[in-house]
Amino acid sequence: MTISNENKAPRRLEGKFQATVVCFILGLGSLVAWNSMLTVGDYYYNLFPTYHPSRVLTLIYQPFALVTMAILAYNESRINTRKRNLIGYTLFSISTLLVLVLDLATSGKGGIGPYIGLCALSACFGVADAHVQGGMVGDLSFMCPEFIQSFFAGLAASGALASGLRLLTKVGFEKSDHGLRKGAMLFFAISTLFEFFCVILYAIYFPKLSIVKYYRSKAASEGSKTVSADLAAAGIHNDTNLQVGFDAKQQERLSNKQLILQNMDYAADLFLIYVLTLSIFPGFLFENTGSHQLGTWYPLVLIAMYNLLDLISRYIPLIKCLKLESRKGLLIAVLSRFLLVPAFYFTAKYGDQGWMILLVSFLGLTNGYLTVCVFTVAPQGYKGPEQNALGNLLVLFLLIGIFSGVALDWLWLIGKSGF
């Protein structure tokens, strides 16, 4: 099959539901391994009590994700998206398996050696995340908005699923010997299998769906070179440039600088959303919320509530009347979230666990909702190659926000005994 430069949409695009489900699963696979590591924080705090594992692992993860994403975003137009995503999911699979092997090899003992190994694997997760998240968001940005919404819902579902499984494993293994360790090992075994499944799903099934082939063919006809390998995997060859009468102007696109200047408010939105979220989640929830009636369950419940509301909120924009599309409205909503900083401070100091659970739920609700609104609105009106580039650039600003938030999270420890 050869791409025609007259890419008219068929009356019925088959496979939309299947593609939406696959996007959800691939989103889930993008963060399930990392969320597993975060969610078993109680196990790592038991293993490395003086090393601040929740904060340190996140702080190591983010620079590797950020630097890798910056390189990939700069070279986005020349990168084979298929290879990029497959490298990312494969690296996730191998790194998750090695977390399991590391714990088994050291018999679940603490110490600086195993901790350094864990930090190295955290860095691998960061590199894998930059490959997958930027690659998938760029790829889905020139398809229908439901796909990118489903992908981001999958990202949130990875946290909700990890939290739910963590609560179940805590119940199941709480009274057994080495219960924390058994639960953590079960986590990483499941994550390893799931990441491998994502490799197969993306490599074989996703590119052959009719609606996916249509959108990638359309992007190729508009000058995108990043989709060539995925089209080839679906049996489509891009001969557009060889056709008589092809308009070379179709391949002209805005530069990355022009795209950033035109979408600076969206980039700022994502930066500010994740600066706030990561300055609170997860380090503050593990180390600064004090002791309450829930005991060791308290941080797990807080993380579970954040993840659950983050997931639910990513479906709200599907209801047209509830979707926030105003650029000014989005910026006002993002800035108003910073009122949560004093709210968390005074609740941790004076409030009870109920108020903290409510605040964490609201943090997750606003995080997921605003993220999906920005990513589904921003690419509208651009050609395929520009949408791909913009998706990568927005993910870059998201990661800059996460890194800044992780660094600012350490400010909560100022004045705390033992710091």
Description of the molecule:
This protein is mainly alpha-helical and 419 residues long. It has a single domain (16-412), classed as Growth Hormone, Chain: A (Up-down Bundle). It has 17 helices and no strands. Mean pLDDT is 85; it is low at 1-11 and 240-246.
Features:
419 residues, 17 helices, globular, 71% helix, mainly alpha, Growth Hormone, Chain: A, disordered N terminus
What's the short version?
By secondary structure, this protein is mostly helical. It has helices at 16-39, 41-47, 53-74, 81-105, 112-141, 145-173, 179-205, 210-221, 228-233, 256-262, 264-280, 283-287, 298-313, 327-336, 340-350, 353-377, 384-408. The chain contains 17 helices and no strands.
Topology of helices and strands:
Blueprint lengths: L15 H24 L1 H7 L5 H22 L6 H25 L6 H30 L3 H29 L5 H27 L4 H12 L6 H6 L22 H7 L1 H17 L2 H5 L10 H16 L13 H10 L3 H11 L2 H25 L6 H25 L11
Helix pairs in contact: 1-4, 1-5, 1-6, 1-7, 3-5, 3-17, 4-5, 4-7, 5-6, 5-17, 6-7, 6-13, 6-16, 11-14, 11-16, 11-17, 13-16, 15-16
Family: Belongs to the SLC29A/ENT transporter (TC 2.A.57) family.
Keywords: Membrane, Transmembrane, Transmembrane helix, Transport
Protein name: Equilibrative nucleotide transporter 3-like
